[in-house]
Amino acid sequence: MRWSRYYIPTLKEAPADAEVVSHKLLVRAGMIRKLTSGIYTWLPLGLRALEKTKEIIRREMNAAGAIETLLPMVQPAELWQDSGRWKKYGKELLRFKDRHDRDYCLGPTHEEVITDLLRGEVKSYRQLPLNLYQIQTKFRDEVRPRFGLMRGREFLMKDAYSFDVDDAGANKSYASMKEAYSRIFSSMGLDFRPVEADSGAIGGNFSHEFMVLAETGEDAIAACSNWPDCTWAANVERAPIKIDFEQDSTPCPAMEFVDTPARHSIEEVCDFLKTDASSVLKTLLFIADGRPVAVLLRGDRELNEIKLAHLLDADDIQFASPEQVQAMTGAPVGFAGPSGLKGVDRIYADRELKAGNDWIAGANRADTHVRHLSLIRDVKLPIEWADLRNAVAGDPCPCCGKPLEIKRGIEVGHIFKLGTKYSDAMHAVFLDENGKERTMIMGCYGIGVSRVVAACIEQNFDEHGIKFPPQLAPFDVQLVCLDPRNAEVAGMCDAIDAQLSARGLEVLYDDREERPGVKFKDADLIGLPAQITVGGKGLAQGVVEVKDRRTGEKTSLPAADFESAFSAWYQTVLDGWKR
Ligand code: ATP
Ligand code: MG
Questions:
Q1: Residue 72, SS3?
Q2: Which atom of ligand 1 is nearest to the CA of 452?
Q3: What are phi and psi for residue 559, nearest 5 degrees?
Q4: Which of 5, 92, 225, 533, by CA, is between 20 and 30 Å from 566?
C-alpha cells in the first residue's frame, strides 16, 4: 500500500482529553478519531489492526467449535422485561421508543436475544450443546467513558453463549472457552494472565477474567510470584487472605483517651500521635440494605467491598451519612471507634486484627481518640471475624503459600458460567432422552475486541510511538523511500515492495514527498514491527537499512541480495516477539 494513496492522518500532538498512552497514540498515529464522548471512528490503519484482532478471535473460536452468527443491535424491551433486567439494568442501558411508541434498547450484551432465539428453536437434547458467537458493536452508556477505546460507550465485543443439557456439559464448554481464550491472547503476542474473578451466585471456579498486564490497567491483580510454576492469580476483588491469624494476648495497658483536635483521617492521626497506620484501627460505618454496619480494618489496609457484600449478603452498601455517623458514634465523622458504638448488633472485624492487642482508635467523641485499646477487653459488642481486606504484596498465595505480587491489568476478556439464570427466567427448555422437560445450562464469554487494540498498545510502546506485535500490526513492514524523485531509489523501493508483497507480506510503502525526518517519525509512531529504509547514500554503498521497531536495532543489508538477507533478518524480528 502506497502511503500517498492511503489515508493516515498522523498528528504531532495528542488530544487534550487523552490521559492514557493508547488513547494518545491511537489518535496521533491516525488510527482513530473521536466523534463524541466514548464514540470513535476507526480510520483505515486502525481498522486493519482491529481486523487482525477479529481474525485471531474467529480462528480460535471456530477451532473450539463455536459458531459465528450476528444478532441485532436494537432489542425490544419485552425481552428485557422477560429476563427481569429492564428494571435492574441501570442507565448504562440506552433506551428509546420507535414511532409506535414501543420501547427498545441498544444491546449492551446479548443474553436475552440469544436465549430468546434458542428457546424457540431448540426442542430436543439432540440439538445441544451449542455455542454461538458474534463480533458486534455494543452500546453501554458508561458513566465515565474514558481512556479512548478502553472504556467507550460504543465498542466492539466478541460475545459467545453456550447452551448445554447438564452441568457437566456446561463445565466442559466453560473449560473449552478458557483454553480458547488463552490461545487467542497468546496468538496476539500479549502478556496476559487468566485470573479468578467473582462468580457471584454460581460460586466455584467459574468466572475468569483475562488481563493484559500493563501498569495503566484499571484492575488490580494478585498473582503468585512463583509464576509460571504456580499460575494462581485472581482479581484483588476476590483474592482470599489465607493466613491463620492467632489472637495476640500480650497484656495491653489500660485504655486512655487522647485529644486529637481536628485530626479526622488516619494520616492526620498518625502524624499527630507520631505512629504508624498499622497500629491504628480504621472504623468504617455503612448502611447495608437499610441496616447500620460497623467494619474494622487495620489503618493501612483497604476494605474489599465484594468480600463485605458477600459476608452481609447485601445488595446495597452505602457509607453512613454524617448524620447517621453522629447517631452511631455521638461524634462527627472521623472519630468512630469500636468501643462504645451504638445502633449496631456486632462489629465485623478483619481477621488480621487478631494479630494485635494494643490499638489506637477513634473514641466516639469529637476530637478524641483512644490509646491502648484491646479488642477482646474493651469492646462490649460481639465481634465477627472475617476476611475483609484487599490482598497486598507479600500475602501468601492461597495455592502454594509463596508471596503474592500485586500487578495492574486491563480486562480484555471475561468468561462466566451463567447456569440457568436466563434460561429459567426466559423458559429456555428442551426435552431430554426420557422426554422430560429440562432447563438449558448457559455460559457467556466476552472479549472487548476494540479494547484489545488499546491494551496491546498499553503494553507495547516507547517515547516515539507504538511497537506493534507482528500478529496485530496493521501492516508487516514499513518501507521508507527517502528520495522518491531519485529513479534508482524509487526503483529499488518498487522492487522491494513487489518482492515482499509476492511473499505475502503486507507492506506500507511511504512514497510521500516528505522530509526523511518526518517519515522516520511517522514510522516509529505507527510502529510496524519492521522498517526498511532506502536512500541514495545507502544504495551508493550497496546497502539498504532495516530496523527492528521493538529493539530499535538497525542493520545494513546488501542491496544486491536484499530479498534473502531480509527474510533471514525478518525471522529474527518475529522470533524476538516470541515470549
Ligand atoms: P468492566 O468491568 O471493564 O466494565 P464488564 O464486566 O462490564 O467490564 P463484560 O460485560 O464482561 O464487561 O464485557 C466483556 C468484555 O467487554 C470485557 O471483558 C471488556 O474487555 C469489554 N468491555 C466492557 N465494557 C467496555 C467498554 N465500555 N469499552 C470497551 N470495552 C468494554
Ligand atoms: Mg462494565
A1: coil
A2: 20
A3: -65, -35
A4: 5
The answer to whether 420 and 412 are in contact (CB under 8 A) is no
Nearest ligand 1 atom, CA 412: 20
How far is the CA of 577 from the CAs of 106, 420, 469, in angstroms?
39, 42, 7
C-alpha span between 257 and 260 (Å, rounded): 9
Cis status, amide bond into 558, omega within 30 of 0? no
Determine which residue's CA is closest to atom 28 belonging to ligand 1.
151
Cα dihedral 130→134→139→140 (10° resolution): 50
Tens-place pLDDT, residues 444-469? 999 999 999 999 999 999 999 999 99
152 in ligand 1 pocket by Cβ < 6 Å? yes
Classify residue 253 by burial, with Cβ atoms within 10 Å: 0-12, 13-18, 19+.
exposed
- Which tens digits make up the pLDDT trace of 217-246? 989 999 999 988 999 999 998 899 999 999
What's the 122 CA to ligand 1 centre distance in angstroms?
29
**Grid cell digits, residue 206:** 467459574
Closest residue (by CA) to atom 6 of ligand 1?
Answer: 414
Interstrand relation of 477-481 and 507-510 (parallel, antiparallel or unpaired): parallel
Maximum separation of any 2 CA atoms in the chain, in Å: 93
Cβ 414 under 6 angstroms from ligand 1: yes
Q: Are 146 and 383 in contact (CB under 8 A)?
A: no
Q: Which three cell numbers stand for residue 109?
A: 450484551
Atom 24 in ligand 1: residue holding the nearest Cα: 151
Answering whether pTM is above 0.85, one says: yes
Residues 284, 264: Cα–Cα separation, whole Å: 13
User: What angle do the packed helices 44-63 and 449-459 form, to 10 degrees?
Assistant: 110
Phi then psi for 578, rounded to 5 degrees? -75, 130
Report the pLDDT value the prediction gives residue 319, as an integer from 0 to 100: 97
Pocket test for ligand 1, best of 137, 193, 411 (most atoms within 8 A of CB): 411
Please say whether the beta carbons of 381 and 338 come within 8 A: yes
Residue nearest atom 31 of ligand 1, based on CA coordinates: 448
Instruction: Please give the Cα distance from 343 to 276 (Å, whole number).
Output: 30
Question: Which atom belonging to ligand 1 lies closest to the Cα atom of 413?
Answer: 18
User: 174-183, 227-236, 355-364: lowest mean pLDDT where?
Assistant: 227-236
Handedness of CA 404, 410, 412, 414 (dihedral sign): positive
446 lines ligand 1 (CB under 6 A): yes
Nearest C-alpha to atom 13 of ligand 1 is from which residue? 446
Other Cβ atoms within 10 Å of 287 Cβ, number: 16
Return the best residue to mutate from 414, 415, 452 for the ligand 1 pocket (most ligand atoms within 8 A of CB).
Answer: 414
SS3 content of the chain, % helix, strand, coil (to 5): 30, 30, 40
Lookup: cell for 457: 498498545
Ligand 1: residue whose CA is nearest its atom 26: 151
Per the CB < 8 A criterion, the answer to whether 172 and 206 are in contact is no
Q: Is 372 in contact with 254 (CB distance < 8 Å)?
A: yes
Q: Find the 566 Cα to ligand 1 centroid distance in Å.
A: 41
Q: 78 CA to middle of ligand 1, Å?
A: 24
412 lines ligand 1 (CB under 6 A): yes
